[in-house]
Design brief:
The chain is of the alpha+beta class. About 35% of the residues lie in helices and about 35% in strands. It contains four helices and six strands, in the order ααβββαβαββ. Strand 1 and strand 2 form a beta hairpin. The chain starts with a helix and ends with a strand.
Length: about 150
């Protein structure tokens, strides 16, 4: 589900904790910017027993979107949560006229790269030394929406 500002405020700590553990402390900055209306990102989440089971942060500009973060707790991975998020985002993007979705992923994150390919993303670039902690290349991926 796409979180409105009230629900995002209510879930912000939970999303930040999950995301910061996966993304080295960057999620809380995204969430703070969204809540304080300094950024227009959209946050999609899957709830299980009224708890955040996964989230996805999406940036949109005109008819393009970029997936900034996707996080699912380790104990819930491979349970379909990321697929629910992707299906929700693809549906939202198609309904809102988005023609292309972009993302980047660590070069060593082979499971994520395979997952994105399963959803029709293609690898089409590399950003050298993009990530830190540890320093690593980013693989650029994109998907055209019909």
């Amino acid at each position: 589900m796409l979180l409105d500002s009230d629900l995002l405020s209510k879930c912000s700590a939970e999303i930040s904790i999950l995301g910061d553990s996966v993304f080295n402390g960057e999620t809380s900055l995204f969430i703070e910017d969204i809540i304080n209306k300094r950024a227009q990102y959209k946050v999609f989440a899957v709830l299980r027993e009224e708890m955040i089971a996964g989230f996805l942060i999406l940036s949109t500009v005109l008819d393009e979107a970029e997936i900034l973060e996707v996080a699912v707790p380790e104990n819930l991975r491979r349970s379909g949560i990321a697929s629910e998020l992707m299906d929700e985002v693809f549906g939202w993007c198609q309904k809102n006229g988005t023609g292309q979705i972009f993302l980047e992923v660590r070069e060593s994150n082979f499971p994520a790269r395979a997952y994105y390919k399963k959803y029709g993303f293609v690898e089409n670039g590399l950003r050298k030394n993009y990530y830190r902690n540890p320093v690593e290349n980013a693989v650029l991926m994109s998907k055209e929406l019909a």
